[in-house]
Every structure is written in C-alpha cells, then in structure tokens.
Amino acid sequence: MSTLLDVKQLASQRAGRTLFADLSFSLQAGAVLHIEGENGAGKSTLLRSLVGLVELQAGTIQFFPSEHGLAQEWRQHTLFMGHKSAVKAELTALENVALQAQLSGLTQVDAWQLLETVGLLGLEDLPAGQLSAGQQRRIALTRLWYSQAPLWILDEPFTALDTRGIDLLQQRFAQHIEAGGAIILTSHQALTWQPEQLQRLRIQGGEL
C-alpha cells in the first residue's frame, strides 16, 4: 500500500505546557490511526495541526502526492471534520446538506439521497436547530458519502450518535478503507477493524 501521510518530529505547546514532542508516524492507504489520550492531552490539537489550523513548534508534515503548505494542495487529498457538527441552525436539513456540498466544490450531489442514507428523510424541511444533536451530527457526516479524499481526519466522529448511527458510520468507514482510503480519528468508541488495519497512538502528559 502507498503512503498517504508522513509526519516527523512534531511538537506542540499550549500555555507553556508541552502537549506532544518528537511525534513521528506514517500512514498507509487502507489503514486507520486511532489517536488516544485523556481530555486535554492534545488529541484535537494534533488533528488540527495536521491540516494547518494550529501552529506547531517543530516538525514536518507531508501529504502525498502534495506537500503540506504548498498552495494548500493537501485539501484535494484530505477531508477534515472537527468535533462540532457545525450545521447552520436556521437552514433546513436539506439546505445544510446542499450547502456542505457546495462548499466542497460539488454541484451534482443528491441531497435527498444523502439524507435517506443517514436516516433523516422526512426531516428534510425542518430547521437544523430543531433537530437533536445526533441528527445534526448525521447532517454533518453526509460529507463522508461523497468525499473523494483518500485521507479522512475526524475528531470524535461518533459524538451524539445512537447505536444505529454508529453502525452506519462504521460501515462507511469500512467501505472507505476497502477502497484504499485511510482514516485518522479520535474516539471513545470501541473500534472494530482488523489488527493489521488499526494503528494506535496515545498522547499522555507530553509523551507518546
């Protein structure tokens, strides 16, 4: 399998406290990297640093085939989702899905089909602000059904999902991995991938 990401000697601090240092790893196509650690350990900071949203004190990040920071070419190869659903409360579920696709540069996405896929058909005309946290999360996660990015970087993707939603998301992850994609995620959810597919990296007290 080809390498999608190579990380060397990353270091990050917050308020003078080291979150992590000398962090190095690579990620192959068809693999999942589970970032573990207690709350405040720096898991979200690591994910955000990988996509340029947090400044690092040291280290290099290379996405293949593009290099991090060069005309933001990594955006063509990476999908990042933070731990917040980030839907617009005043827009309907259908409008939110269509807007997400538009912001991703897509105009031919079937928003109705996506809502059906994530179990929200029938709620398409309701403002997202009237939906539950789990339903809002499903709206945000529809991006995973049309993304062409081989590398997904996801911060707590299972947040607020019920058992059915978790199962649906696990199935989508499995499809992505089977197709040669890769995933980096934080999660308190038990992961079901085969040992050869799953890597673990634990951040604890500034150590790995």
Automatic annotation (TrEMBL):
GO biological process: cytochrome complex assembly
PROSITE patterns found in the cross-reference section: ABC_TRANSPORTER_2
Source domain of life: Bacteria
Domain ABC transporter: 5-208
Keywords: ATP-binding, Cytochrome c-type biogenesis, Membrane, Nucleotide-binding, Translocase, Transport
Name of a matching Pfam family: ABC_tran
Record-level Gene Ontology MF annotations: ATP binding; ATP hydrolysis activity; transmembrane transporter activity
SMART domains, alphabetized: AAA
UniProt xrefs under InterPro entries: AAA+_ATPase, ABC_transporter-like_ATP-bd, ABC_transptr_haem_export_CcmA, P-loop_NTPase
Name of the protein: Heme ABC transporter ATP-binding protein CcmA
